[in-house]
Design brief:
This protein is an all-alpha fold and 75 residues long. It has a domain of 52 residues. The chain has four helices and no strands. Helix 3 crosses helix 4. The longest helix is centred in the middle third of the chain and has 19 residues.
Length: 75
């Protein structure tokens, strides 16, 4: 079932359109369409940026700081 959904929303190399576009012309505006066809410019990049912004607002950094601690002894 997942394979069929991915196939229907993925742009085909031969035609340059996804099969769903023939049925529903507004499909290009759907989040699943943009996530499958251009994940780094629309979907995944925005998710990663949002997570980074939330982490920075909470004072968490992406890389844990280990300065001033001894990794073996804990002091």
């Amino acid at each position: 079932m997942v394979f069929v959904v991915v196939y229907v929303f993925t742009i085909q190399p031969g035609t340059g359109t996804a099969p769903i576009e023939q049925i529903l012309p507004q499909a290009k505006q759907m989040p699943l369409y943009t996530l499958l066809n251009d994940p780094f410019n629309h979907g995944l990049l925005n998710i990663c940026q949002a997570k980074h912004e939330v982490d920075s607002m909470n004072g968490n950094s992406a890389v844990p700081s280990v300065t001033g601690t001894n990794m073996i002894g804990g002091k």
